[in-house]
């Protein structure tokens, strides 16, 4: 692991985002009707994303275990405008006060939530794709604030 011993503890935030795209109209209609056989896709996947962020150092080699002070995951069902059959946007916000950032925890949260959507909908859509997973905001630490140009939070709209 990289030593963070000499770094000061500061408030740090990272937000990651990504999208699950559907390959047919069935998953979106079932999610909206809360009729997926495995349960409430958006609620279960939100919890999966939170749990994934908390397990990041167990999954990513050499990742520091960090005492997270906040993990929030937002899932938004997307109509079939931009994507032919719709999808689900996933956003994870992770915060801590510490010596290293939480970008990996935010990315892991997005992937955990996205994989949960795929798992819960795979019976009705074999062709789903998870795309565009990336860090969109990072605050705190020596490098200060960075934001993806043009990014707007689904959670803030």
From TrEMBL:
Keywords: Lyase, Molybdenum cofactor biosynthesis
Catalytic activity: (8S)-3',8-cyclo-7,8-dihydroguanosine 5'-triphosphate = cyclic pyranopterin phosphate + diphosphate
UniProt cross-references to CDD domains, sorted A to Z: MoaC_PE
All residue ranges annotated as the Molybdopterin cofactor biosynthesis C (MoaC) domain in the record: 1-141
InterPro entries: MoaC (IPR023045), MoaC_bact/euk (IPR047594), MoaC_sf (IPR036522), MoCo_biosynth_MoaA/MoaC (IPR050105), Mopterin_CF_biosynth-C_dom (IPR002820)
Pfam entry (one): MoaC
Keyword Lyase: yes
Enzyme Commission code(s) on record: 4.6.1.17
Keyword Transmembrane helix: no
GO function terms (MF aspect): cyclic pyranopterin monophosphate synthase activity; GTP 3',8'-cyclase activity
Metabolic or biological pathway: Cofactor biosynthesis; molybdopterin biosynthesis
Any one Gene Ontology BP term: Mo-molybdopterin cofactor biosynthetic process
Gene3D superfamilies for this protein: Molybdopterin cofactor biosynthesis C (MoaC) domain
Organism superkingdom: Eukaryota
NCBIfam families in alphabetical order: moaC, PRK09364.1
Protein name: cyclic pyranopterin monophosphate synthase
